[in-house]
Amino acid sequence: MSSTDISLHNDVHSGHDEHHDDHHDQSFIEKYIFSQDHKVIAKQFLFAGIFWAIIGGTLSSLFRMQLGFPEATFTFLEPLLGKWVEGGKLDPNFYLALVTMHGTIMVFFVLTAGLSGTFSNFLIPLQLGARDMASGFMNMLSFWFFFIASIIMFYSLFLETGPAAGGWTVYPPLSALPQAIPGSGAGMTLWLVSMAIFIVSQLLGGVNYITTVINLRTRGMSMAKMPLTIWAFFLTAVLGLLAFPVLFSAALLLIFDRSFGTSFFLSDIYVAGEALTHTGGSPILFQHLFWFLGHPEVYIVILPTFGIVSEVISTCARKPIFGYRAMIGSMLGIALLSFVVWAHHMFVSGMNPFLGSVFMFLTLIIAVPSAVKVFNWIATIWRGNINFTPAMLYSIAFVSLFISGGVTGIILGNSALDIQLHDTYFVVAHFHLVMGSAAFFGMFAGVYHWFPKMFGRMMDEKLGYVHFWITFICAYLIFMPMHYMGIAGFPRRYYTWTGFDTFSTFLDMNSFITIAAIVVFVGQFIFLFNFFYSIFRGRRATENPWKSNTLEWTTPVNPGHGNWPGPLPVVYRWPYDYSKPGAQEDFIPQNVPFSQTASSNLPHERDFE
Amino acid sequence: MITIAVALSIILLLVILYLLFRIQVLASIFKGSYRRDVGKSNKVNAILLLAFFIVMGGLFVWSFVAAKEDMILPLASAHGDELDSMFWLTMAVIGIVFVITHILLFVYSYKYQHQDGKRAYYYPHNNKIEIIWTVIPAVVMALLVFSGWKTWAKITSPAPAESVMVEVMGKQFNWMVRYPGNDNKLGLVKHTLINANNEFGIDYSDQNAQDDFMADPTAFRVPKGKPVLLKIRSRDVIHSVFLPHFRVKMDAVPGMPTTFWFIPTKTTAEMQTETGNPNFQYELACTEVCGRGHFAMKMIMVVEEPEDYDAWIAEQSKKTFVSQQAAPAAGEEQAVATNGAGSTEPAQ
């Protein structure tokens, strides 16, 4: 409602504006806490994501210290962690809790909620030319459900028996039996409750993103003129909407097995001196359900960054994205295929080998659209005029990490080769590069790029460069050597390998990785300082600091409620008219009609003049 | 005292860093460089990208070569040969892609850095190139899929009838191994029969169970050159049998027995000579997180010449479960009675 008001009374003198402001005066709570404005909700997700990233990073530093220096004693951690580091030695159960919570937090709370929540919310209305999301109220609920899920998950970190500790994949029976591991007690209950609420939050958000993209595009913004970011967020939301309910059902069945004596996943178990009465269940069933979400989930993590990176590379290379339609097609292909590859996580789970052959075939197909994307990004850089903003550096590094992590997927997707490499550090290296680091880099690219529109100020470039180089170098120093350990067969989730002669090599390499991990963790404080300092004291931004074409840059420096003070912009062209021959500037925003650019119009565009 | 000193120096360091940051900001305002769209740092970053590629590329090659010896585990199974060559072939394929794409990415980044007065080349698409670089990966993938299928089908095919059968059972936190004895048939087991004297839960009323016997708690033996069929199961949570030198891995799932068969090609003694390590042993590790002791679920697998193995079997078959447990048999039946309520179908 308010938005219509703004557009109608925009040109009226200031006296009216005051009246207008009075009329729409929002309390602090309405404006910043229970806000229904997509931009505020996006920032809420961003702050929550940063909070969780710090927690997730801290946890990884802790277990990396154990892995890098298995003989050392960490007495200095005792005041903080109490009985979990008795005598300076990490408790093995605590170690498992650390890796479990690190995975859960990073995958779901940072790279799903923090990433999609921030950028889908912020960019969908702004780039589509909409006043807000289709349902601001549902959007608000989406954040607050996420907030409740966060509180529950955070609380579980402080339980006496510890948080969930059976791996982020929470395979039963381990996750179902508190007798088997203390983390499967109250910690696991809270994990399941938190995830159930988290899924509600994701569905509320996802429905909103999809509806907004379909219904609220401004005049002229056909699906084929949407920026790739929007395509990416749209497909991400579709994936989430179809996949998360399956995780919900898996969580629900697991809750039943744990608390109400059912046997969906449990059968023939003798644990802690007692034979359980569960019979007829199948642990494999859980794995199928989990990975039916779990695999689309890794694309939920990486797809938004595909969009962000495409946008940033095109803008900063001052060149149209190469193969716009191929980019959309490959994202569609990846989204579709992501639903039929899940069992490649289960080649040696004991499932029928025939299934293994089918899933190997489907998995390796997905490499084709991924390769197309990489080639298109490189072709976009080719003969560009590149401005290395921090966002651009992160985007180039994203492509590098995506290649490095992606190619090893071809090995792991081969069921025969997976026999040796399954659950080794090769897998850890693979997914940390391709969906961990790459998604983080895409997220950093997004933050550096859209910070001016979010906060009306610029982040400091030099600090951005320092942050980038530390992060990029360390990302490779950490994860490249992990491939070597994986080829040598080092199993995942091992508290220490010193008990095995086979895995007693690479001690120095583990220490090296740990040092790099701690350096990169400390390096993130440069970003944090830059981020918070720039919110308040950064250089003031202009409306369109990167000379970009998309609609969000046509809004004022600090877009208010309703985004555009006047009428909504009208779209005439695709978003990638950079360096068009004959044009005056090296960019033509989407809302510039062809009639104003006669000198640069291509033959087929003359009709639109 | 030291803590305070450390804290003070950290605070001091942060203050210095903050001052440096402010000086940098003020300097850029003074020079007016912040007003330019593309400044000097553009060139610096372009050079750094190229330097990154050269230095890190060099480091990668060096570390890969240096670690190669540690990386490649000596191989001791028949199917492992095929797997290893397929692995390194695939590595070569992805290595080529990795190198080419990275050269292009970093060299283009450097070469096409911003230059004043220059304009980028407006080049939105080229269907021919796009088709080419879609088809090539598709063909390469197809070839890899076919070779993968062939190997996978061979490895997962049914075990030969003459296989030596060994049951490996995972539990928190160790492995236990049972041999089927002369009849080459494993006796029935029920989880409700498990107790301190009957860790496997063997049903002693089953005829096939009469000659079953157990391996040492720390090591079990298999013959060289014969197919070995591992019957894998778990009695509590999911574990995973991993024999790295044999390229063998299969989950141990409660309620769903699994199998894996392979042919050992080198005895432990041969491997000790080959590696020059007189203490070399084939180790069996757990690769599915199973709780506190996950990292310590180790068992030794000894590969022997068939004659030695047969001799050992002949010796061991006298120590059947039945003969070992003759005394506590009475207690056994009581346990059956108390736990009988939840009895299930036999797991085997």
TrEMBL record, chain A:
Instruction: State the protein's name.
Output: Cbb3-type cytochrome c oxidase subunit I
GTP-binding in keyword set:
no
Q: How does it sit in the membrane?
A: Multi-pass membrane protein
What keywords are annotated for this sequence in UniProt?
Answer: Electron transport, Heme, Iron, Membrane, Metal-binding, Respiratory chain, Transmembrane, Transmembrane helix, Transport
Give its localization: Membrane
Transmembrane parts of this sequence = 45-63, 94-124, 136-158, 190-216, 228-256, 289-310, 322-342, 354-379, 391-413, 425-451, 463-484, 512-533
Classification of source organism: Bacteria, Pseudomonadati, Bacteroidota, Cytophagia, Cytophagales
Q: Report the residue ranges that make up the Cytochrome oxidase subunit I profile domain in this protein.
A: 28-572
UniProt main location, coarse? membrane
Under the heading Pfam families, the entry gives: COX1 (PF00115)
Instruction: Kindly indicate whether the keyword Cytoplasm belongs to this entry.
Output: no
PANTHER family hit by this protein: CYTOCHROME C OXIDASE SUBUNIT 1
Q: Which family does it belong to?
A: Belongs to the heme-copper respiratory oxidase family.
Which species is listed as the source?
Answer: Rufibacter roseus
UniProtKB/TrEMBL annotation, chain B:
Segments spanning the bilayer are 6-25, 46-67, 87-110, 131-149
Q: Which cofactor does it need?
A: Cu cation
Domain Cytochrome oxidase subunit II copper A binding as annotated: residue spans: 161-315
Q: How does it sit in the membrane?
A: Multi-pass membrane protein
Its recorded name reads: Cytochrome c oxidase subunit 2
Kindly report, in one word, the top-level EC class recorded for this enzyme.
Answer: translocase
Q: What does this protein do?
A: Subunits I and II form the functional core of the enzyme complex. Electrons originating in cytochrome c are transferred via heme a and Cu(A) to the binuclear center formed by heme a3 and Cu(B).
Domain Cytochrome oxidase subunit II transmembrane region profile: from-to ranges:
64-159
PANTHER family reported for this sequence: CYTOCHROME C OXIDASE SUBUNIT 2, CYTOCHROME C OXIDASE, SUBUNIT II
